[in-house]
Task: structure prediction
Amino acid sequence: MPRTSPKASGLGGASRTAALVAAALLATVVPSAGASAAAPPVPRVDLTVLVVDDGGSAVQAIIAELRSTGVPYRRVDLADSGRPVIDAAFLSDTVSGRPRAKYQGVVLPHEAPFGPGSAEQAALAAYETNFKIPQVDAYTWAHPGVGLDYTSEGGYAGPLDGATAALTPAAEAGPFRYLDGTLTFEDNDPTITESYGYAGRPREGFTSLLDVPVSGGGRASLIGEYAHDGRRELVVSFAYNQYQRQFRVLARGIVEWLTEGVHLGQSRNYFSVHVDDVFAPDARWDTARNCTPGDFDCPGGDGEAGENPIRMTVDDAVYAAAWQKSAGFTLDMVYNGGQGEQWKTEHGGTDPAAARLIADRAQYRWINHTYTHPFLGCVQDNSTVPWQCAKTSTGATRWTSRATIAAQIRDNHNWAVAKGISVDRTELVTGEHSGLKTAPQQPVDNPNLAGALSDTGVKWIASDNSREPQQRVVGPAKTVPRHPMNVYYNVGTAAEMADEYNWVYTSRADGGSGICESNPASTCLPAPLDPATGYATHIVPQEARIALSHVVANDPRPHYVHQSNLAEERILYPVLDRILADYRGLYADNTPLVNPRQRDVGTELDRRAAWDKALAAGQVTAYRIGTAVTIKAPSGVTAPVTAPEGTRKQLLLGTAVFGTAYAGARSAWTAPEALQSTTTLRLPTA
Result:
């Protein structure tokens, strides 16, 4: 696949000279005997990435990015004695008389994993030279072999925690054009080094893309392109793993560089927030008893909200609408109409908060949360803590009936329609995600749930991502996993939040519950938080960081909180403000947050599952010949595709603009047009 020089092509973009374009069109669109005799055919390059894996965190991070975005790759495990030998036959062959490069890009642990001068290293270099295939060196050190001076020659070697790196003009005009200029390395634990790197000064042939200031003046590179011997390498000289923010935000650009902006797979930065229990009161945490009166885990609990519950006021409702407008962000109101009616009856027949929310109904999205928020799984026996599923006299589990479940869904939908609220009957969030299996007490779904979902037209039912992160089928519906945020449902003030957080996350010796000690997935705080300041100084930045890590990882799953978090001290807003501010400080305007509703998340996860299955079965064929990209997938499977601006999709008659603009490229889930067996894209010619 001939290319212009890196300088002329803007760091390996989709541009080609007019002569190459003409040759590609002759070879792929209207071949002729004369043209074939005059010039060799333009090579075919398959849209698959070769990953040579040494088990290190850097290669694992790139694999995670490829996998999560749907980019096909072949992994060669260096530790596997039975691995294939990297030679010319492994890398290329001929298909229908046309040379074929089997891989559009190569990811290596570092620049020479097979050893300098080895046959495999030589075969790889020859392949990259002949077919102009880019190579990523996932993590290496600064030295002349990768186009950099040694760090002792005016560079830097050491920790990067808290360091601020800057994108160069070449990066902002090229593969990292979706970022906003600077990037600060995470520093979450001052007691350990989280990031280490080698910043070297560029030599001839090296174009820095991300650099840092160094002592003595000037800047040294952490990521850059090294063009030499007819090859191009992306040199990354700092350590990272797939969870660190600096890698997550750079990962898109690494893949764009590796694939020259043309690849299967796509990604977005998603963020949705579901506010559960709207119109209902939420029980309040008791800071003296360390439990929630009214809840079944508290002595004497009966499942009701108890005394002094937390519920939004009219001022809270006014604030919510104003915040949305100023933040440019839409909340999903997950509502219980029957709970609202009960509250109204118990408070003199008026409900100003509900009236305000309903008056502003068009400013929100709305999701059915059942009419009165009952538990829809097994019938609960609350005589013990924790509760158990009640049994019949024969020992069988007692289940909430199909009719009861359907009535809860239908009544809540009808209530909203009567209030003029626009609600999609295909979306549902049950109270506590009940009806779905709840370990350990209820290890299976309520057998009556699927029928009730069918009766009421539900296609997308929310699940708890901390329990069930994968989408699955429930009768006529599919689950939409939601991330729980550590802003608790039973607190209305920062002090209450810090107190309960301390109970959960401090050791018994420090006065906590010790849950963090007995749960291997948890970590105890070194000391209890100050109730007066702990929420703002510790919980807000931590929860914002966790949520943002989902956003920048191409994870469409919604986050969920509760209406209590919008009441009293409105403790949710500082977390949301921090997430939005941090995001907008990282990304350029061409990469806005995507705020999908529940059905759109469900559809996205469903498409991904089908795509991953087709890839795993080897049922996808995709390749590039010059400016033509051809994609074939099984019937009914849509393909995620990313391509440069200016790409057009071939129709039966003519072409149309391909995809949607995002992050400086075009991307979409795409399928063949009617009467066509393959999808064909035409890349821009200049």
In short: Confidence is low (pLDDT under 50) at residues 1-36. The longest strand covers residues 219-228. Residues 102 and 432 are 49 Å apart (CA to CA). The first helix runs from residue 18 to 28.
